[in-house]
Specification:
Elements: H1 13-20, H2 27-33, H3 35-49, H4 56-67, H5 71-100
Helix pairs in contact: 3-5, 4-5
């Protein structure tokens, strides 16, 4: 079983470096966090730093890497579900921000 993120199928050193920016440094942390939440954290970091947000292909690659599938297969079969999960996380974040104000 892979321990380094770069050893997962479809992911490499750049993916590993990107995830480290949000505190995810190994496969176990990625599994624990989940691909969608990890991607959401990367989106939030990019927005906060004024950088371009990561491509949805990176989300598909994260899911594919964790499930030993091609990102293309993930994009074709799970695109809608993943986008709904991502929107759900975003909506919950907005709700908690509103409640705390």
């Amino acid at each position: 079983m892979a321990k380094r993120i770069r050893d997962l199928p479809g992911l490499g050193e750049k993916s590993e470096q990107s995830l480290a920016l949000v505190g995810i440094t190994d496969v176990e942390q990625l599994r624990s966090c989940g691909a969608v939440m990890a991607f959401y954290r990367l989106q939030q970091l990019a927005a906060a730093e004024g950088r371009a947000k990561p491509s949805l292909n990176f989300l598909y690659a994260l899911v594919g890497g964790l499930s030993n599938r091609s990102w293309l297969a993930v994009a074709q079969s799970e695109r809608e579900q993943l986008l709904m999960e991502l929107e759900g996380i975003s909506e919950m974040e907005r709700m908690f921000q509103t409640d705390s104000e």
